[in-house]
Amino acid sequence: MFLGHFGVGFGAKTLQPRVSLGTLFLAAQLADLVWPTLLLLGVERVRFVPHFTATNAFDFVYYPFTHSLVGELLAGLLLGLGYW
User: Fold this and answer.
1) Section 50-77 average pLDDT
2) Is there a contact between 63 and 44 (Cβ–Cβ < 8 Å)?
3) Per the structure, how many domains does the chain have?
4) Confidence band (pLDDT; 50, 70, 90) for 62?
5) 47: domain range?
6) Are 12 and 24 in contact (CB under 8 A)?
7) 3-state DSSP of 12-77
8) pTM of structure
9) With contact defined as beta carbons under 8 Å apart, do 46 and 61 qualify?
């Protein structure tokens, strides 16, 4: 799943060739870059449950800001305005 975000950056590069690939990668990874900070601040929550899934021990309890459609739209808008 994590690597798929880079695919979005590569795909966006074909649509917007003037934008640097690094900026597109940052935009695609923004949720996963902000999430640990909000987790450490106690804004979002996760539980560690051994063998929760076959590949991951995270039970994502509450993460409405970094991984929600509205949160991502707002983050994209802010990033776009900052880039503009």
Assistant:
1) 87
2) yes
3) 1
4) very high
5) 4-83
6) yes
7) HHHHCCCCCHHHHHHHHHHHHHHHHHHHHCCCCEEEECCCCCCCCCEEEEECCCCCCHHHHHHHHH
8) 0.69
9) yes
- C-alpha 17/C-alpha 56 separation (Å) is 36
Q: Can you tell me which residue has the tokens 């991502």?
A: 72
Measured in Å, how far apart are the chain's first and last C-alpha atoms? 29
Listed in sequence order, the residues at least 6 apart from 36 whose beta carbon sits closer than 8 Å to its beta carbon are none
Q: Could you say which DSSP state residue 84 is in? A: -
Cα angle 41, 2, 31 (rounded to 5 degrees) comes to: 35
- Cα–Cα dist 60/47, whole Å: 6
Distance between CA atoms of 4 and 11, rounded to whole angstroms? 11
